[in-house]
Amino acid sequence: MEPLNQKKILVTGGTGYIGSHTTVELIEAGFDPVIVDNLYNSDAQVVDNIQKITGVRPLLEVFDLCDSVKLGKFILKHKDIQAVIHFAAYKAVGESVRNPIAYYRNNLLSLINLLDVMKRYEIPNLVFSSSCTVYGQPEKLPVTEDTPLQPATSPYGNTKQIGESIIRDTTCSDKNLKAISLRYFNPIGAHPSALIGELPRGIPENLVPYLTQTGYGIREELKVFGNDYNTPDGSCIRDYLHVVDLAKAHVVSIKRLFEKKNKSDFEVFNLGTGHGVSVLEAIRSFERVSGIKLKYKITGRRPGDIEKIWADPGYANTELGWKTLSSLDQAMKTAWDWEKMIRSNNL
Ligand code: NAD
Ligand code: WQD
Questions:
Q1: 346 torsion bin: left (phi>0), alpha (psi -120 to 50), beta (else)
Q2: pLDDT for 92-134, tens place per residue?
Q3: Residue nearest to atom 43 of ligand 1 (CA)
Q4: CA of residue 140 to ligand 2 center, whole Å
Q5: d(CA 295, CA 318)
Q6: Taking 80 as the threshold, does the pLDDT of residue 74 lie above it?
Q7: CA 183-335-62 angle, 5° bins
Q8: CA distance 214 to 287
Q9: Nearest to 325 by CA among 267, 243, 237
Q10: Predicted confidence band at 3 (pLDDT cuts at 50, 70, 90)?
Q11: 24, 6, 29, 4: which is closest to 14 by C-alpha?
């Protein structure tokens, strides 16, 4: 078989949070990642830090994937791309409710343009960033890949459901195209080097960046959205996985496609730890790893929140040979180290 280091992988959204960690893992596994990102939600400096971690500087091309002309020109320069990992998307749930058109346009048009060039230039392998949001509040837990999908509760979630359908239909119509959709649960933390991590714009919507910013004193206190749910401590439950574990799942998925181990043309995997963690447990984890007593107060429920959800990662464990390795505390510690690093560098 061709050595891995000759395999060029297009990583869309590769300077973003999950994309940058995956680019590091791809380089460390011997692949040649090429990033396309419009830097809407990331910084070109991420490439410097990927280089510091790996010793390799991945190529970054800055343009919008909604621009089919620029994408076509890019692919002509890189006809040797053999697979695509498609991270690029808008991802803020609340913003998608306020501005659905921007979300449908960006997340769907970029995907359609990408599939179009993949078909035209016979790039046969795609890994897609999907989300546990497609399951809504499932009736039975944990969630397997066979758990029925619920109607999307936000335009963002809808773009993931529609995106999966578009990919499934395209693989049906094109015998050369194979795709894997990875449904992430809640990625948290940062690279242990603290050189790359999540850079939330403005006030974070997600729990862990809000928690670490509160610990650092940037936010006055964390609001715990409800303690009257039907859960052991009354707060909501999620499945938080370390972003480095998540990144490694993409490398395994790419290898599966190259080695033609896929069982169908469109496969789906749940990526989580298999353990549910409540908001109050996450706060205690933060307090353990930081030594800080967190200021928080219980407030009302956040509209649209799911009460509890966690993955059954059994299918990914057996079929992909992938499982999470980091504990909640280990992941939380990297989130805290990253928060301190960005603040001390005024990022
Ligand atoms: P991110 O915002 O950090 O990264 C996405 C990157 O894509 C950004 O760098 C952004 O600038 C770029 N981008 C967006 N639209 C683009 C376009 N049209 N053209 C070129 N570049 C574009 O987000 P992330 O957390 O790394 O998420 C990556 C993917 O994973 C997304 O598809 C997201 O929906 C999905 N996902 C994320 C989570 C999570 O909690 N972070 C959970 C489930 C799924
Ligand atoms: C986690 C828990 C909140 C903030 C989001 C997206 C979903 C998917 C995963 C991308 C919840 C509670 C939060 C705060 C809190 N992403 N919380 N105070 O809700 O699982 O989903 O990420 O695909 O689409 O919606 O993650 O981090 O927002 O919240 O109490 O200030 O923390 O109520 O229980 P969530 P989250």
A1: left
A2: 999 999 999 999 999 999 999 999 999 999 999 999 999 999 9
A3: 131
A4: 20
A5: 41
A6: yes
A7: 65
A8: 12
A9: 243
A10: low
A11: 24
On whether the CB atoms of residues 66 and 113 are closer than 8 A, the answer is yes
Element (H, E) at 248: helix 243-258
* Of 46, 77, 31, 1, residue with least CA distance to 254: 31
Best mutation site among 271, 279, 306, 328 for ligand 2 pocket (most ligand atoms within 8 Å of CB): 279
pTM of the model: 0.98
Please give the distance of CA 213 from its chain centroid, rounded to a whole number.
21
Q: How far apart are CA 137 and CA 259, in angstroms?
A: 35
What six digits make up the tokens of 248? 């490694």
Paired tokens of 225: 């959205």
Q: Decide: residue 5, CB within 10 A, 0-12 exposed, 13-18 middle, 19+ buried.
A: exposed
Task: Locate 28 and state its tokens.
Answer: 């460390």
Ligand nearest to the CA of 271: 1
Decide: 182 and 131 in contact? Cβ < 8 Å: no
Q: Which residues are catalytic?
A: 156
